[in-house]
Amino acid sequence: MTDDSRQRALALWEEGSHALLSGDVDEAISLFTTSLEVAETAEGYTFRGWAYSFQGRIEEAIEECRRAIAVDSDYGNPYNDIGCYLVQLGPGEEAPEWFEKAKRAQRYEPRHFPWVNLGRWHMLRGNVAEAITEFHGALELNPGDPVVLAFLEKLRLAVN
């Protein structure tokens, strides 16, 4: 892959991301697909998978994440996403290993998400101490995160 083709692919990926965030899932999938035709990127596969998940196509979303990992195993987002998709499919017993892989990934933004998602996984199972540990890990990476603080408050109220 040349630098030019990678840059063009990432520009299309960015367009697709904007389309997805504005709610145009079909357009986003089209842009991610075009991006991947220009050059295979972990971002393209991961976000096409995310778009598939919006359509309830969870198994396909997982496959897209596996393709992303094959292209760039340092990119953390697909590991975290697989964990989330496994939770969606239920019961998600394999999800923690994927969140842990996301934590170790060299390239990941937003860095605290795997901690938040693993904390939520523990919280749903009543593992209060483990959930608190994960949420505190998230706060170390993203101090003052309102979502994490809300989860911690919910746990505090549940234990008292």
What do you see in this structure?
This protein is 77% helix and 0% strand. It is elongated. The relative contact order is 0.08. The chain starts with a helix and ends with a helix. The longest helix has 19 residues, at 3-21. With 160 residues, it is an all-alpha fold.
Which runs of at least 5 residues are low in confidence (pLDDT < 50)?
none
How many β-strand runs? 0
Principal-axes shape call:
elongated
Strand content: under 5%
The radius of gyration computed from the alpha-carbon positions, rounded to a whole number of angstroms, is 17 Å
What fraction, in percent, of the residue positions are helical? over 70%
Output the helix-strand order. Answer: HHHHHHHHH
**Based on helices, strands and strand pairing, what is the structural class?**
mainly alpha
Number of helices: 9
* N-end to C-end Cα span: 57 Å
Biggest sheet descriptor: none
Residue-averaged pLDDT, rounded? Answer: 97
Task: Please describe the structure with a list of short key phrases separated by commas or semicolons.
160 residues; mainly alpha; 77% helix; elongated
